[in-house]
Each structure stands twice: as C-alpha cells, then as structure tokens.
Design brief:
CATH class: Mainly Beta
Shape: globular
Strand order of the largest sheet: 1-2
Strand content: 35-45%
Radius of gyration: 14 Å
CATH architecture: Ribbon
Structural class: mainly beta
C-alpha cells in the first residue's frame, strides 16, 4: 500500500499520481490525515497551485 520515508524531521507518505478519464489525475489522501483534519466524505475542498506545490484547503463559502 503506502510507503513511509523519513525526510528531515517528519515522515512522508509516498503516493502515486493516477489518471482517471482523459483529462484528470488523482492522488489518494491517507485516512489518518483526513481524520486529523476533521474532514468528511464528499466535503468540498479548494485545490490551488502555489509555486511548485499543490495545496488542498477546506472550502469556506463565506470567504469567496
């Protein structure tokens, strides 16, 4: 399943980028991360590109 790799002072979970259909890609997020954030199934999130990183944040309808 997932592999853990030590990087600096934190442990990283290594995942593969997968393709779905012809135009989209996906990466699975570990269940433990979702639970730690308090997120739930079908929750809306915002995906942004910040420099060379992809950032996933909870969607807050009041902030748009």
């Amino acid at each position: 399943m997932s592999k853990k790799r030590r990087h600096g002072s934190k442990s990283e979970v290594i995942r593969k980028i997968n393709r779905t259909g012809g135009y989209s890609y996906y990466v699975t997020i570990p269940k433990s991360h979702i639970e730690e954030l308090g997120w739930r199934k079908r929750q809306k999130v915002v995906v942004t590109l910040e420099g060379d990183q992809i950032v996933i944040r909870d969607w807050n309808p009041g902030s748009t």
